[in-house]
Amino acid sequence: MKILDLNVQVIRLPFRFSFKHSLASRNYSDNIVVIARLEGEHGIVTGYGESVPRDYVTGEDAASAAERIRNEYLPRFAGQSFDHAISLRENIWQQFLDLELDKQSKGASWCALEIALLDAAAKAERLPLAELISTIHPCHGDGIQYGAVIPFGKKKAFTAVAMFYKLFGFRTVKIKVGRDFDADLERVALARKILGPRVILRVDANCAWNADEALRCAGKYRPYHVASYEQPVPADDLEGLAKVSRNIPEQVLADESLCSVEQARSLANERICSAFNIRVSKVGGLLASAEIAQIASKAGIARHMGAQVGESGILSGAGRSFASTQERFDNYEGSNNFFLLKHDITNENLNVGTGGIGKLLPGYGLGVTISEGRLAQMTQSSNVVARPRSQSNDAPAPVGSGSSTTLTQKQ
Which of 93-107, 156-170, 376-390 has the lowest mean pLDDT? Predict the structure, then answer.
């Protein structure tokens, strides 16, 4: 199989409402989409990948991520040939290590390219993506059971969202909290009252507290049976994160503190937290996510699958493929596309169904198809195409000839 060309686009997905937490408030998401065309035994196929850069998580925004993909990553793959999909997968991982991305918080730049290549390779060999990234396929029954998230909001809106989640049948609900301690306590109490005793209640502070505040809040929330606290302290306060983990019985998740494989190893070795929140875009793609999940499993650390706010159906499909290759996690987030996005770019509706169930996707690759019309409407810039430089105006350079890569600007 041969990689014919690669294209990176910045797209803007508008939200139905403003989503707020302690680190940001937004009513749209600027995402990266990479499109990979690959020629295989059965003809030419197209793969799609996506990532969601967040400067307050990995230090990346859409512009910097697109530039890094264009300048550093695309030339490593454009025009290259591989014997089969597994050899391409192994090359992707080796390139990831060679670039030392396992040691950097630059996951969003790499993630979209990786998923696009894996999607195309799986399609070329007529495989589901899950079969390409893993030989292990635990039984997940009818699908993956996702939880829901309630962002910041006034009491009336909070109540309406909590009541909708109860009626929809979510079994796990996470509440975003911050520094309005009295109001947040009221929100937690209200959520428990509305959702009832059987729903698992989680809290995400998004770095808003220090360790002592986290311990005080955990004590005040305990009557409402909160199951876990996600990133209660700033990302770089590992001492504080460890202090909270040691002193409360509830799970303490690393999220913003977990943006690379190396950070996962350090958190596990030093027993800094009791759970990992693994977000595919944040940590650098599906292969890095699998590596981090394995680190957690070996260390006896609980695993959660998170999501970036504003993922399209591409990342939702990737997350579902990843989840299907792992033993059951404690919680899953994402696939709330219809609830949040005004428009998605996939033809399939990747939103969870009642009870939070996201069905496993049939078909080859990710199992999703793209609406080219909606993708075009949402594209902010489509400015990079990587392909082998022609030796003449119409003759492609042979693979292995040492030819350079052309990066063509498109307006």
Answer: 376-390
pLDDT in tens, 307-364: 999 999 999 999 999 999 999 999 999 999 999 999 999 999 999 999 999 999 999 9
Query: At 78, phi and psi to the nearest 5?
Result: -60, 130
Could you tell me the pLDDT band of residue 197, with boundaries at 50, 70 and 90? very high
pLDDT digits (tens, 9 = 90+) for 205-240: 999 999 999 999 999 999 999 999 999 999 999 999
pLDDT at 409 over 60: no
Q: Note whether 35 and 28 are within 8 A (CB).
A: no
CA separation for the pair 207, 22 (Å, rounded): 8
What is the signed CA dihedral for 222, 225, 227, 230, rounded to 10 degrees? -50
